[in-house]
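Q: Entry one of two.
A:
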Amino acid sequence: MHAKRLSPTELAIACALAALMAATRFHHFGSTLHLPDASLAVFFVGGLYLRQTLAFGAYIGLAALVDYLAIAHGGVSNWCVTPAYAFLLPTYACLWWAGVWCSRHDRHGWRGYARLAGALLVATVFAFLISNASFYGLSGYFDELSLAEYAARVARYFPPYLVSALAYVAAAISFEALVVYGSRLRGNVTYR
């Protein structure tokens, strides 16, 4: 079975998402000088617009490559690279497949935007739980810490985790809405 060839619009989206991930993946929560990591949003938006499993695999490979370069050449600590690192695959799959699910439904208008926000929220919660539970259980750093203590410590990271994903996805959807609106004004065919 062959993968469907990306349209020029999809190729532009794929490249923009890859550039966004490459530019932001070095800093998880951001700072005054750096945008927060856009990886969660990249996987959700990739699922929404690209939908192909091959594209998902390409973004997984890009994430691993950026992480390698950040550690090997960028001075970033390898503290997070443990056996739990493999659980980034199901973490990002939650977001990708939520995006694919949303692509099958109308995402315009208040109901569509509410469905999109709900799917992103649920997928982000599951992604956070998978990545943090696997890190707790497999990293080897928390043998003396109960799950409840660990959960209390990492809970403070959930709001920026969620907010950055929501912000990036909101920007992407807003951009799409402007393109669709502009196309309708000009009477052009719109991108789905």
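Q: Entry two of two.
A:
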Amino acid sequence: MPESEVARWDERYRTGDTPWNTGRPDEELRRVLAEENIRPCRAVELGCGTGTNALWLAQQGFDVTAVDISPLAVERARERASAAGVAVRFLVADVLEPLALSGPFGFFFDRGCYHVVRRLSVQRYLDTVEHITAPGALALVLAGNARERLDPGPPVVTEEELRTEWGRTFEVVKLREFRFDAELPGGVRPLAWSCLLRRVARGQAP
């Protein structure tokens, strides 16, 4: 990503302009892991922010690696992990470039990274995800829903876009609408997609 993107995200964390950052583990992540009985394994979170969900996954027994482009966010995530006595590998990196990660990972979590970076290069992002997962891996992607466009609000994606973009190497196992935990001014919780995916082999029809 351009250096301006790094600076922009660092500034948002520095000033506290992070409406998505509730400080609590994501409700939808917790629901899906429980209902789908997803067992602890090697997991990766792209766009981890200050690490709330990565720490929670580690506390559930997952072997977690977490990535963000903001050095300040990762610094705070490492501080939180240290204070909590939780082992998570945090990495400052650009998800649109090849990541120096020792995959493959059995579970991949994305809460709001995909719907941001797809505007820059969805193909490069999906290449990254494909590189770090193997056929059979599960993924949970939470993204803004284009059926409700808010300003201010999260970037949004249509169901068709989501299915088309992820359909290259993932099967859509379950797709449902829900509302993000974080509240915008006025107490509005943005409409979102919860997309549970399973990685398939390249060239294999989902």
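A: Comment on entry two: Residues 110 and 141 are 5 Å apart (CA to CA). DSSP finds six helices and eight strands in the chain.
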